[in-house]
Amino acid sequence: MDFCNFRLPLLILAALGCCSEGSPLLNAKTNGVIGKNVTFKTTITSTQDFLTVTWNFNKDPVIAPIITSVILMNTVNIDEKYASRIVYNNTTCELQLGPLVKEDEGEYILNIVTTKGQQLSGQIDLAVLEPVTDVKISSNLPEAVEFNSTVVLSCSAKGSFTYKWLNGSVPLVVDGTHMKLNAVGDELTIAEVRRTDLRGPILCIAENALESGRSAPFNLTVSYGPEKVVMTQTPTDSFLKKGSNLTLACSAQSDPPAQLQWMFSGEEMPQKTTAITLTNVEEKHSGNYSCVAYNAKTNRYVSSQVAVVSVLEALSGTNISSSSSLLIAGNSTVNITCSAAAGKAESMEWLKDSKPVTSSDRIILSADKKTLTIVKVVKEDAGNYKCQLKNKVNKDESTYVMVINYGPESVNVKGKNVVKFEEPAELKCLADSFPPSIFSWKLNGTAMNDSRADIIIDKARVTDSGTYTCEAFNPITGMTKRTTHTLAVTEVGAVDEGLSGGAIAGIVIGVLVAVIIIACIIKRKKKSSTDIP
């Protein structure tokens, strides 16, 4: 069966509208813009149960066909007027139309006949809008005077739209009296204009339902001032180092820009610039600085705040001197004095190992705090002493390392009291001393040829038993301290850990004495037997 023979019964079914269901269109109304495309959206996801799909344009009183699709025969018939202007989706039955012209405005009808003889039908109204172009703002005044002028701003554009005004990036707020809009919204009136009314820039937005246009930023000049005359100082300190630089800058809110005049202690300075710099300042530059702003249009003079500047010499070359270079604990008294080569200090502080020094019976600060006296130093007085000087422009400091010679103290020997025969043994002599002590050793009262702090015995013998005396000597303080340590070497076998070192040593010494006595008796008997009566 060809398309022409099949079309007639389908059209009859469509005309009868039997068993029709709800609209397959997503919306009942939509908008488009001249020169752009519009798509009529549907709720359809598949056409496998459809016989025919038709789109018509109802331009009262004429209904013009746009496209007819016979699904069963896989044929599509597009009216020649729309052949190059539509895009049809075979799956969703959606229709894209464009580029739009004003004559495309009207009602569009979608009719669908299913394989079950049901008809789906929907209508959508298209409104074709003109594009928004040529948006601009004009003013009734080229220049306004604050509190005197009334400004009227007009917004114009091509197209059909409504109007919005922006002050910078936020919507313009009107109060109906000082600032108001006309009924259409394209005219903004500002009475007794203030410069804060138009901080802007002012923007006008013309828009329709689909698009908008924005004017170029508009700024209106309002003469005012000078006011808020501010002078800044770099550096900001009221007290400056001698030889440093001073920069003063003056600013004022004024339109047209204000003329500036610099003042020093009530006298006019030759500079009339927005900023001045004084290099290598001296005491003669101490005084009061200010600037005066003048607006020739408003004929007003306004002065800035006054900056009071004092020039002082900076502290430098701080040094700590000591009354003695050799300090011995318990004997020496020392004075350390802090002074600066240049500048005058207003305050002084002493620190020891980063902590403030406090006065006591032995530690005395002079009235001006320049000299620190320590009476009969002790070893705990050793450390890093810091003197910090300050005035209003800077601070300086110096560090002195105090060395205290002391000792020896707490002399003792570390090591075992009992070792087995041919086992290694080590004795170490310790002493608290500065500078470090020189050591000497004695065994049973006899000097040993060893000046080290430790004695190492690789294989202990009975002859290594006895009393060891360690003597520590400090060559700076001249002090000597000694201590003793008893070592007992046993015969091969286990050492009785139950006896103390002294007890074991006593036993060993007793055994040695007994052996000597027995040897003497035997020797005497042998001699007696050989004597002639």
UniProtKB/TrEMBL annotation:
Q: Which keywords does this chain's UniProt record carry?
A: Disulfide bond, Glycoprotein, Immunoglobulin domain, Membrane, Signal, Transmembrane, Transmembrane helix
Q: Does the keyword DNA-binding apply?
A: no
Give Gene Ontology CC terms: membrane
Q: Which SUPFAM superfamilies match?
A: Immunoglobulin
Q: Name one Pfam family in it.
A: Ig_2
Which residues does UniProt call coiled coil? Answer: none
**What InterPro entries would the database entry show?**
Ig-like_dom, Ig-like_dom_sf, Ig-like_fold, Ig_I-set, Ig_sub, Ig_sub2, IgSF_CEA-related, Myelin_P0-rel
TM ranges: 499-522
Q: Where is the Ig-like domain?
A: 226-303, 304-405, 408-488
- Tell me where it resides: Membrane
Signal peptide range equals 1-22
Question: Where mainly found?
Answer: membrane
What protein is this chain from?
Carcinoembryonic antigen-related cell adhesion molecule 5-like
Source organism of this protein record = Sinocyclocheilus anshuiensis
Its taxonomic placement starts with: Eukaryota, Metazoa, Chordata, Craniata, Vertebrata
